[in-house]
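Forwarding the complex inputs:
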Amino acid sequence: MEIKPANNFLRSIIAAELENGTATEVVTRFPPEPNGYLHIGHASSICLNFGLAEHFGGRCHLRFDDTNPEKESQEYIDAIQAEVKWLGFNWHGDVRFASSYFQQFYDWAVVLVEQGNAYVCDLTAEQAREYRGTLTEPGKNSPYRERSVEENIELLAGMKSGDYDEGEKVLRAKLDMASPNMNMRDPILYRIRKQHHHQTGNDWVIYPTYDFAHGQEDAIEGVTHSICTLEFEGHRPLYNWFIEQLPVPSTPRQFEFGQLNLSYTIVSKRKLKQLVDEGIVSGWDDPRMPTISGMRRRGYSPASLRHFCEMAGVSRTEGVVDVAMLEHAIRDDLNEDAPRAMCVLNPLKVVLTNYPQDQLQALTAPRHPNREELGTRTVPFSRELYIDADDFREEANKKFKRLVIGKRVRLRNAYVIEADETIKDANGEIIEVRARIIENTLGNNPEDGIKPKGVIQWVSGAAGKRAKVKLFDRLFNDAAPDRGDKNFLEHINPDSLCVVEEAWIEPSLLEAVPEQIFQFEREGYFVADRYEHSSETPVFNKTIGLRDTWNN
RNA sequence: UGGGGUGUCGCCAAGCGGCAAGGCACUGGGUUUUGAUCCCAGCAUUCGUAGGUUCGAAUCCUGCCACCCCAGCCA
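Prediction (whole assembly, two chains):
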């Protein structure tokens, strides 16, 4: 599919900068913290960063912002790389790690101290909070604010060599405790964390904060446009301050955009992790998760996700995109390439009384109705077959275009049949429908001119196979499950997963390989499960249903 | 409340002083062996609001209103 990138405010800004010489190249970066899997919001950021670099002939780095070992792990690092690759992006050069710049950060911290721009503070976390003041009241200077450069150097070295306990001391910038911007009230640069780090092991016991690390990481890598979400806007003055004070090799600038939010879903790593930790979903890659790996497992294609991100656009407003737009992008892409097949989810036996008992006819059906070049498949036809119970009614009004006693329906890719009677069990449940084939209707309309009103899918009882099919519905039944003071856990949709243990599938589906996507005609798109599917035990996940304009 | 942001159709979103793009959704109609796809048509006299500047404003100015972010040794 062709994805034509829409214009957005960042493109306009950068184009103007390139034009007037403010910028001479475009280097961006996607900087996840490895503390969870990536979600649809990150996909948008990835498309933005890589897209901008590509559009302007620049480059984009993948950099792990791993400054807080407490919440990070190698598992996430591996997953994130796989997710970015799967989406179809290639980062420039090696994967980068903020942690590989730790020594440089420390050296720069020393520079700040030498400049008199930073000091070691002994206030406890609680005291620091009190000293910080409030939104309307200025803060108070820390009593440790005026320590000498020599003392600060010594104390900082002590922090680094492990002389103090966690929380005992921090390094802070000496800015302005009365600043109306809370971020400028002597922000913390280093804290003591006696923790093993997934990349640096036990080399460090002090770790830089986001504020002290991010801009410098950008500067080291020559990033020109450091794009982040809106909540970092208030940090920009600080970001710039470090760049101005320190002898950094380049001058990156920060730009903010509004994160992509989706209706009926949650885009918060923290909350998504909670769903995983509490066992509400089977894992980060549960097909109901809005994570990239979850959507992959669900059958969403990389192209559809990228297309969706382009459709949703990028701006500085904090909107909520209708999940219908995502669904449209998925269908739009899958419709193009997904081979068609037939599957019956809720089987009802049909016996064709005028068809020979032991005959098995090999019918030929196109793999795609609009793309002949995709070839054909063989679909066996027999006297006994299964249709979906929803496609039959003993009687119905004219709007019902499926099988009804005394009426006709076309069996997709096969004959027109007419239903005669039903057979019921002791409870009065219909267990079988007896019907007849209308002669000479393979590829033709009935000769008597009575055309069937509808078409339904079917699977041969003699040659069809069984498969497990997982049907998904939205994970939350509230359009904004975590808005305001709502507890998203109270809005979980209890029916978000429905497993059909024994669906009937046409035999050609046994050739499916994991992650192959099909359209089960009249039902929707289904993907052979990435992990559980095999020819012996076929397992399909419902990606998304077909658009359904049949209102009833 | 101090500071920083944002307000264009039900939902995204272009627009950058010359007279409201596009997509999603929705509504009609056509094609169709998927109630799918596809096609065609409709869908903001109005841009949070009140004023002002101008021949002319969604675009400039002023006030007001609403919502979001910041008081982690998270990012």
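The first strand of chain A starts at residue 27 and ends at 30.
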